[in-house]
Amino acid sequence: MSTRAQRRLAKKQATKYPARLTRVPLDRWPDSPSSASRINVWLSRHYLVQGFAEMGDIVRLTVCSTTPSADSWADGLTWDELMEIKRQCGYGHRAAVEIYPDDSNIVNVANMRHLWVLPEAPAYMWRKA
Q1: pTM for this one?
Q2: Is 99 exposed, middle or buried (0-12, 13-18, 19+ CB in 10 A)?
């Protein structure tokens, strides 16, 4: 978990980025245990998004706000914000899902959202008539 000072610094640094998501150069990617499968990092004034290669042609987008809250990062991303984030990362043409696991598999370590971008739209997806 990051400290309040680290969150304030991250927010200050994020203000240097444009309003739209911008790719972060590889040498500036954050360290993480799952960095081996990371394929992209984007940053804007408002969001940090990391893309991870998952099985098949699935990409997991991990999204968090760059706005600090009392002990973590601001929460409450809307559906419209997540759709726009998916578009800005280059996946507007693909369907994505968000998973709500069973109680025994909940992992909740930070205010972040995960979108799994699928290679094909699932059969159960609503479509325009």
Answers
A1: 0.82
A2: exposed
